[in-house]
Design brief:
This protein has about 325 residues and is an alpha/beta fold. The protein has helices spanning about 20-35, 60-75, 95-100, 120, 140-155, 175-185, 215, 240-250, 250-255, 280, 290-305, 310; strands at about 50-55, 75-80, 110-115, 130-135, 160-165, 190, 210, 220-225, 265. About 35% of the residues lie in helices and about 15% in strands. Bound molecules: phosphoric acid mono(formamide)ester.
């Protein structure tokens, strides 16, 4: 068997810290794992005997489920802990929770937390790999990787592609991860939103800024629509959802001005009819469910690359 490729990082905390070689390695590995999920028996013994803990302090459908499925398809034992059912509700600190989980000798920890920086902090107290499954408004690296895998599948390559990211940029860890990753991969990124939903220093990240949806998407190869994050709107940045929707909901009318080859992606969950119309969401250019399918392969690749083939196969 060939040697497992290695990554420059032992933890996956941000796309900002991954190189183009790291990203290519993860995407190629995920590609090779996709076939396993099409089998009748969707399981290989690669991570037999290894233990994965999913520790989620925020709600999740796609990310938590796909990390669990990914671990199980590689034959690892997967433990899911939600914040609401952990002893943090009794006052235990995040660090004490992590130290207690470490005492049971798991092999990897997947963490989602509403505080930006929580997964990075955990790496100082947990001596096995940590994967950030989304931290506050900071980053969501595995989402960005599945977005890139989906785009590469349909476009053939990433370099030179123009991506328009539309929506709640201010609160979006998906936007932040993708801005870093897409530029690392030689893509250009434009963000499109009302001024109040774009961080004031966003140009420092090397993106173009536009406040008009029709003009902003005109030359895009890929349009990424983001959810309005209702749970993080506490600063009065939106006058009303209806007004947002009037100006920024992607409709077929907007798409009449762009190439037939332009792809539509959305990380989910979707606010139907708020940021994307139903016909666009379910139309032929929409890859929203392909992204979800690719999420399993990406997470299998991350487990495999971080745990290592030779170590995983040892007795
Ligand atoms: N895209 C994403 O992170 O979805 P979930 O919140 O359902 O995991």
């Amino acid at each position: 068997m060939t040697q497992t490729a290695t990554l420059s990082q032992r933890n996956i905390i941000s796309m900002e810290s991954l190189t183009d070689t790291d990203i290519d390695t993860i995407l190629d590995t995920a590609d090779s794992f996709k076939e396993i999920s099409t089998r009748t028996i969707k399981k290989v013994p690669t991570l037999r005997g290894r233990t994965i803990i999913n520790l989620f302090f925020e709600p999740s459908t796609r990310t938590r489920t796909s990390f669990e499925i990914a671990g199980k398809r590689l034959s690892a034992d997967v433990i899911n802990i939600s914040g609401a059912s952990s002893s943090t509700v009794k006052g235990e600190s995040l660090i004490d929770t992590v130290k207690n989980l470490e005492a049971m000798n798991p092999d990897i920890l997947v963490v989602r937390h509403n505080c930006s920086g929580a997964p990075a902090l955990i790496t100082q107290f947990f001596n096995k790999p940590v994967i950030n499954a989304g931290d506050g408004t900071h980053e969501h690296p595995s989402q960005s990787l599945l977005d890139l895998l989906t785009i590469r599948e349909y476009k053939g390559n990433l370099k030179g592609l123009k991506v328009a990211i539309v929506g709640d940029i201010a609160h979006s860890r998906v936007a932040r991860s993708n801005i870093h990753a897409m530029q690392t991969m030689g893509m250009t990124v434009k963000v499109i939103a009302p001024p109040t939903l774009i961080p004031i220093d966003i140009e420092h990240l090397g993106v173009d800024v536009c406040h008009d949806l029709t003009n902003g998407i005109r030359d895009a190869d890929v349009i990424m629509i983001l959810r309005i994050q209702m749970e993080r709107q506490n600063q009065g940045l939106l006058s009303s959802l209806r007004e947002y929707s009037n100006y920024f909901c992607l409709t077929e009318e907007h798409l009449s001005n762009v190439s037939d080859e332009t792809l539509i992606i959305h990380p989910g969950p979707v606010n139907r009819g708020i940021e994307i119309s139903l016909d666009v969401m379910e139309g032929s250019r929409s890859l929203i469910l392909n992204q979800v399918t690719n999420g399993v392969a990406i997470r299998m690749a991350l487990f495999y690359l971080l745990l290592g083939e030779s170590d995983a196969n040892s007795n």
